[in-house]
Amino acid sequence: MDTDVIILGGGLVGATLALALDAHGMTSIVVDPADPAVMLAPGFDGRASAIASASGRMLDAIGIGATLGGQGCAIRHIRVSDGLAPGKLDFRPADGDGALGTMYENKLLRRALFDAATAATQVDLRMRTRAIDVVRGPAGVTATLDSGATITAPLLIAAEGRHSPTRETAGIPVARWQYDHAAIVGAFHHEHSHEDVAYEIFYPAGPFALLPLPDDEIGHRSAIVWSVKGADGPAMMKLGDRAFLAEASKRMGGFLGELTAPSPRASYPLGFHHAARITAERLVLVGDAAHGIHPIAGQGLNLGLRDVATLAEVLVEGKRLGLDLGDPALLDRYQRWRGLDTFMVAAATDTLTRLFGIPGKTASAVRRFGIAAVDRLPPLKDRFMAEARGESGTLPKLLQGLLV
Q1: 79 and 199 in contact (C-beta within 8 Å)?
Q2: CA dihedral 148, 152, 155, 158 (to 10 degrees)
Q3: pLDDT for 210-239, tens place per residue?
Q4: Residue 293: which domain range?
Q5: Is residue 335 part of a domain?
């Protein structure tokens, strides 16, 4: 065999998996059609991700955390509210417990992972390349690339995103639906410091998430993920900067003062999908190829990173035992370990999206009552905070900050 695993997709999840395997002496060939010059272009591209504390420990363990050091903004407090009405739910760790997570611009994550994968001795990164034919069989996986090369491995990993062609070719059923929401993503500067607080403000049209970013030469800034009615998305994108900031300020109630210097904005439709299974013959799905959820709780990327930590542990231990990395029993361990967690998180985010989308004063009053009740119940709050940190369930070693 040419390599231990073939990874189709070198994005945030695929590259992290390759580096996690490299940290344990395992080899991978990563195939991705993207052009690095485009993928790594300078400038804020409107996207930022909350890396939960458990995911951050994995990045530290595989050597990426040091590269990112000082470039993110800690999330030390999360405040949830139903619009701007009275009542809120505060998630604030006890002194000494550390931050709930860290916000990073996606371009910083992409650059750190790309540079590390390029330098890694056990990672063969093949950008601007496609697999034009893949054959999975009892003896292994053979992929023919558009470069003319043929590569082989005992296992194929699809990290191609929500429209994974490998998943479709494998005939894996997917439950999917679209929400009547479009997400507007971007960033802006504001007069007052965010004080490392992330805000989730729920409106019937969709949640307005305000996420802390590090200060820059202009001043204080935050990223937003603003869910609006699908029909309103194009109009929101056409607004001039001044009008857009005025609308954002209304949603925020002006608590961060004057808004200025917005970044370019991007928009994308929101949907849900969940693969009926995440393994097939000599095939594993990770990240958005396996599941896609509403960004209501900021858990999408972290779900993919939990896939990475779990799969890395399963494969590393399997190789140490001398097992075929495509062995059905090995893949079934990954399926059982990840299947329930991804389903529960997906179901919870879908339920929250629908619950907070119910219009009317009565529905709002019920939500505010629930928010206030949870705020007064420390054990329940602790459970939610553990979920936000990515620390619920049986944690793979990498999420504990340990190599396997």
Answers
A1: yes
A2: -10
A3: 999 999 999 999 999 999 998 999 999 999
A4: 5-74+106-176+272-356
A5: yes
Report residue 46 CA to chain centroid gap: 15
Q: Give the pTM.
A: 0.91
- 330 occurs within a structural domain: yes
Cβ-contact 17, 113 below 8 angstroms: no
Answer yes or no: are the C-beta atoms of 398 and 313 closer than 8 Å.
yes
